[in-house]
Amino acid sequence: MRLVNLRQRRRVSLAACALMGAASLVTSANAQEAETDSEARFETVVVEGRRVSQTDLAIGQDEASNTVAVTREELLSAPAGISGLKMLESLPGFNVQTDGALGLYEFGNSVTVRAFNLQQIGFVLDGVPMGRSDAFGGSPIFRYVDNENLGSVVASPGAGDVSLPSYASLGPIVSYNTVAPSDEAGGILSYTLGDDDLQRTFVKLETGDINGFSAYISRSKTDSNLWRGPGTIDREHIEGKLRYEFDADTSIQATYVSNDFFDYDSPSSSRAGFEALGTDYGYSETLPAGCISPVSVDFNNDGVIDGSDYVPLQTGGNCTDYYQDRVNIRQDSLYALNFESDIVDGLNTKATLYYEDKDGFGVSPDGYSNTLSRYQDQVDIGLDVTHPRGVQYGLSGVGGTRKGAVLGFEWQVANHTVEIGGWYEKDEYNRTQKRLNNADGSADGAVLFDEVAYFRRDYVSVRDTMQYYIKDTISLMDDRLKLQAGLKLLDIDYSLDGYRDYDDYVRRDPNGGPVLAGYGPQSVSATYTSDALPNVGAVYDLNDSDQVFASFSKNYALPRGADDIFSTATSFVAPAPDAEESTNYEIGFRTNRPTFNGAAAIFYTSFDNRLVTGNVFNPATQQPESFSVNAGSTTAYGVELSGVWQPEIFDRKLYGDVNITYNNATNDDAFLGNPAGSLLADSPEWIFSGGITYEPTEWFVANLSTKYTGDRYADFREAAVSPGNMMEGYYLWSAYVDVGGPNNFGLPENVSLRVNVDNIFDEDTLAFTFTTTGGGNAFYRPLNPRTVQASLTVHF
């Protein structure tokens, strides 16, 4: 059923689509090259194009596991300002759903790959592990990258290398690698305009090489309206890099990243809600009618209601439909120092030190009646709280630091390459939640920080992590066969101290009697230590263009959502959840030919102690809140295919790319009424993406692409109870035209214009879901409508 669509378009009229034309997607090429009797080696013979990823990285050349990448050449075509997560959309196996064309809303992002989701994927930036991907207290990768500074995004969907540091990964690892400072002095200026009043600037300055020293600094500023409902997005992002090369093998590099982000919330709803209100449904731009409803109360708590008492006005149940006081603010900084050198001939080392500072808060308004109930509990027990004045300022503070070090050595001896190393990190996170009064009890009023209506949380959680690894790569048969054998150990000490939730402040008597004193601040802890985790594989060169590969690995991770689990206020020491564990098998084939490159992999994954996210509706905020449930074990199997074809018949001016994924991921165990054998929530069996790119001249590039996300479910029982939890498959079409470079009509060669169009055919569907572990209706977020932007860039 097509949803009711009441969208009021705010569109920029750009005639980019007329330059595209309809075209068929290219699938594969079967050209065979003659074998020779000479030494068979996998050599670099590449498909070439201005927007073709570097082929050895794109297909994972010489990797024992399925490793795929998108590199700078292809990244340059992306819309200006997109989230780092959206860069995974073009890779096989990844189901990426984001909110808005740029994907910047942190509570509207989801990624699944094989049996895993976003919180079970490890992310690494220039050798720095990025910790958790949680919006509260985590280090999501998209806060730390600008597309213009990326050199490559390299992903292993099933088994990342043992040397990559992560306590979150159950196999999948994604490495984001930024570019080094340029050898030439210069810079970039870019300005972008687009729908929803999008304005973005990007400035980058390069020193060039000065006797081994080089550096750059960049700043981007993004401002936009939300695509539905009132509110804005404001992002300022700064990256700086200093590098000194002592010689060809020894260098030191310092990196700084700062991200200052502010945005407003937009509502999620059930399918029925969006069908009734339309997919452009947002919060109210004005105070809803009926919100003002004066109530006479003993505000000063002196036992008498008289003229000295303040009279709350905004007490209506719909007051929280107002968009004010629904904001998210994050201020994050990352400092890193990288060093690499050859100690002696054949022995190299790499070291990384890093420090991250995280600060921010989120606000959700709390209605009068809900606050009044909590206030009464806490005032009755003697806590220093103030009677609610109306709509409350629902403050959630998030902050903390991460600091760590990564050290590795590589020793080449005979036909062996031995790698050994380790990683240490301390991650401290402080979470606070309380409800504050606003002046006049209105979301438009000043926050009264000395008037707390009730307390909810105030704790510090700490993760102390150690990881050790050793790996040996053996080259045999004149380097045609490479065998890899590695082991890693992971040790995590987790602790949480403070007020976990409501019941640590005050408890309600289950028999209806007077409220009881809370449990008070608590200390809980758990230690997670893995067995030796093997990672073995092999790569064999069939000839000078083809390889086969196979791998096996075991992985171990801190339970996802650990803070949510351990912050449950109980009267006893609840048993710690088991660590999540997985086993991955892969076998595959890759080829690299003058007109075609591609890779294919068959995988099987088993997964124990799977923690899944459920969501419950919070009547105070009118939005879903998540919790974790142990769903037992999971099994996933399937196929991932990817390739690029540049047929000679078109004089290498036209090329196509395609990614196809089949993924069958099911629950092995029944849990909470969900049957064994059901498909995982938000896990489509089929994903397809593909496109064609046309480069008739050096100054013109055009692309038309599509992505298909297959049918999936928002629950773990395949919508058997709630038909609205069935999510229909959909195609998302996009295109771009890039004009600039050497030309014969007099335009400056250092100036380019790119136009990007997202959702060309205005597909209207519910693309993102807050999955539910029960049989009730799930909550969703809709796909953004057609969006156009244009970027003018000058290189100097």
Q: What attributes does this structure have?
A:
796 residues, disordered N terminus, 5-stranded mixed beta sheet, mainly beta, 5% helix
Question: Helices, strands, pairings?
Answer:
Blueprint: H1 55-58, E1 68-71, H2 72-75, E2 94-97, E3 110-113, E4 116-117, E5 122-125, E6 128-129, E7 150-156, E8 173-178, E9 186-194, E10 198-206, E11 213-225, E12 232-245, E13 251-264, E14 269-270, H3 271-277, E15 327-344, E16 347-366, H4 368-380, E17 392-413, E18 416-438, E19 447-476, E20 481-499, H5 502-505, E21 506-507, E22 516-517, E23 522-529, E24 533-541, E25 546-557, H6 562-566, E26 580-592, E27 596-608, E28 611-618, E29 623-630, E30 634-645, E31 654-667, E32 686-697, E33 700-709, E34 712-713, E35 726-727, E36 730-740, E37 751-758, E38 766-770, E39 779-782, E40 787-795
Parallel strand pairs: 5-8
Antiparallel strand pairs: 1-7, 2-3, 3-4, 5-6, 7-8, 9-10, 9-40, 10-11, 11-12, 12-13, 13-15, 14-39, 15-16, 16-17, 17-18, 18-19, 19-20, 20-23, 20-24, 21-22, 24-25, 25-26, 26-27, 27-30, 28-29, 30-31, 31-32, 32-33, 33-36, 34-35, 36-37, 37-40, 38-39
